[in-house]
Amino acid sequence: MTSVFHACHSPLPYFPRKCQRSHPPRPSVSFPSSSFSRRCQSDARFMATSVKTAAWTTPDGSALQDGISEYFDKSSGFWEDIWGDHMHHGFYDPDSNVSGTDHIAAQIRMIEESLRFAGISEDPAKQPKRIVDVGCGLGASSRYLARKYGAECQGFTLGAVQAGRANVLAKAEGLADKVSFQVADALNQPFPDGQFDLVWSMESGEHMPDKAKFVNELARVAAPGGTIIIVTECRRDLGPSEKSLQPWEKKLLNRICNAFYLPEWCSTSDYVKLLQSLSLQDIKVADWSQHVAPFWPAVKRSILTWKGFISLLRSGLKTIKGALMIPLMIQGHQKGVIKYAIITCRKPE
Amino acid sequence: MRLLTHNMLSSNIKGVTNGFPLRIEVEKVVEKEVEINHDFLRNIFPKIDWKAFSDASRIMGYVELPEEAPEPSVLESDLEFLRKFHHALLELHLEEGALVCPETGRKFPVNKGIPNMLLHEDEV
Question: Which Gene3D superfamilies does its entry note (chain B) (predicted)?
Answer without folding.
Answer: 2.20.25.10
